[in-house]
Amino acid sequence: MPGSSGDRQEVRQEAVGRLEFILAGGHMTDSTGKTAQLTIDGKTIDLPVLSGTEGPDVIDVGKLTSEGYFTYDPGFVSTASCDSDITYIDGGAGVLLHRGYPIEQLAEQSDHLELCYLLLNGDLPNREEKDRFVNTIKHHTMVHEQLVQLFRGFRRDAHPMAIMCGVTGALSAFYHDSLDIDDFHHRVVTAHRLIAKMPTLAAMSYKYSQGQPFMYPRNDLDYAENFLHMMFATPCADYEVNPVIARAMDRIFLLHADHEQNASTSTVRLAGSTGANPFACIAAGIAALWGPAHGGANEAVLNMLAEIGDEKNIDKYVKKAKDKDDPFRIMGFGHRVYKNYDPRAKVMQQTCHEVLGELGVEDDPILKMAQRLEKIALEDEYFVEKKLYPNVDFYSGIILKAIGIPTEMFTVIFATGRTPGWIAHWNEMISGPYKIGRPRQLYRGATKRDYVPLDRR
Ligand code: CMC
Question: How much is the pTM?
Fold first, then answer.
């Protein structure tokens, strides 16, 4: 934890222009003094057992390679890939802490940009630090004007996640002045740029699909308001931001901000471990997030509800989800880590009711179907036994639909919210000693054989 003792506490504070800015590094895991013993072919290997500040102890298998063995763990189900101080999840108890603070308290009392500061710096800002940070982010929201040309190269019907992968990676071609990953100041500016510009790029990808002019960001609006303005205003008509919707949008960003070593964050770390520039690493994270088993699930929830079509078909689809021979799954249910209610889903559910009430759309047939599906699945023995609860994506999709955001944009919004988490993890890794990520394999292919010339095959 920041502030507690550790071998490698590397919190650095430097002046950046007129800003005091901190980027927090990580701690080394403490040895418990315990060892695990592995006996193979009569030979015993002692493996150190390490302990974090929370969560189960881990067995350090690093020296197994020198003994001639690798561990085998497809899907990294039992593997801790790094040390981290940023986020802690207890999936069994349904707990999510960012730098020690419970997500419920952050959702209730904080806001997305404050959480960004917390993730990056390790501690909550005081009033002055917060104002400076918010002001800095507001002054980085515009993107290079030439990026407009890049957008125009995409087909109008391109999926906005395809555009986001491209334009985020392309930022490295526009911001050469902040690409030195070993330079602390470059890393700070890049963190600011990415957090500030992601909503702008996200809204541009939507406007492009609609054939509408891009809307410039407005510095008088806060983070979520500005995003809604860039999405829904046009040069002909301003968009009046409803405070309940703006608060819900901010919560959606906040609830997605980080989730420790999930697939996209691990992708960002892996790409970053090669020394690749941060814009390229975040583009890799966006690509990983796109899949329906990860961030694409919020879009998949709405597509699934459209496929179910009517409340009377729900039982049929629940039956399909339980059939081992049918690949169909209830999207927005289940989680690799949570075997309890996802704490983010609880907050999201409450926000969902607030938004539906505010907009007076509680009778929307799709939304009613979602609520019915949730109730049935929560009571069904199969889901109860397998501890499959609604996850954050189940409700975020419903809220976003009610706000009027098209389904293809849902994962883009997830990516926008997750950006500070990706950068915080990338920075944590770069700030300390790290190795290139290079997993091994259990090879099951052909053994050595001689090449057969084409005329003899
Ligand atoms: N509907 C029906 N059955 C399910 C579901 C579901 N949504 N999720 C898991 N199961 C079953 C699965 O078939 C398996 O059964 P069995 O033990 O009989 O083989 C068991 O539950 C365990 O599932 P798993 O696939 O081994 O678990 P996992 O940890 O590898 O996968 C998951 C987690 C999220 C990929 C999976 O639950 C899933 O595909 N859910 C639907 C997609 C979804 O909502 N994804 C968003 C995840 S949360 C947002 C994020 O972090 O990105």
Answer: 0.88
